Model the fold of this input.
Amino acid sequence: MDKVYSDARAALAGAVKDGMTIMAGGFGLCGIPETLIEAIRDSGANDLTFISNNAGVDGVGLGRLLETRQIRKMISSYVGENKLFAQQYLSGELELEFNPQGTLAERIRAGGAGIPAFYTKTGVGTLIAEGKEVREFNGETYVMETGLFADIAIVHAWKGDTEGNLVYRKTARNFNPMMATASRLTIAEVEHLVEAGEIDPDCIHTPGIFVKRIVHVQNPVKHIEQRTTRKRAEAAPAGAGEEV
Done:
């Protein structure tokens, strides 16, 4: 079975439909499958639910799909960098299921592991727990959260082989590995594509059994969400400090 597709549009062909639930890896703008997101935009699919830590920023990442009004609902943790997201949510155009970040990560991991639900102390006594089952264990109160599973997961990897084994690099190893396990169809964009057997098995983060389609994306643009720099030290005037 050939898993490698010529481009992102080909990798998504026949897979994306209106009303689907899609997981999108990344944290902020780090490790986001931007090429696949743009291909979803071009597909014209609407009424989509996205499971993602955040919604990108205006004009980047999932922000592109907010611009085209293709997203109906977001299941997210942090959405503070996207003004369009806020506008659509406050106007009632966009539905939001808000999660504590650790709870979101565990819901995805549970979905990939076939665990339908679990209990956590996070959110007990807050709006997060409203309408959910609450139980006591050993004298402590816990709220039940359900696992998450998607129709499609799109992930970004630093390296992958033709069998779909993936390696993520540094901070880009965020939500990508767990999302790759939690969908009916996982599509990966990889920066460096190598032949099967060229990746040390001990270095593989996502086994190829989870990945059905691969697209090679060379030299992707890597955005910086919040650029923080240190002021340059002022150069000392010529002759300063010299003995007279």
Summary: Residues 101-113 form the longest helix (13 residues). The chain has one domain: 4-115+147-216. The two ends are 80 Å apart (CA to CA). The chain has a mean pLDDT of 93.
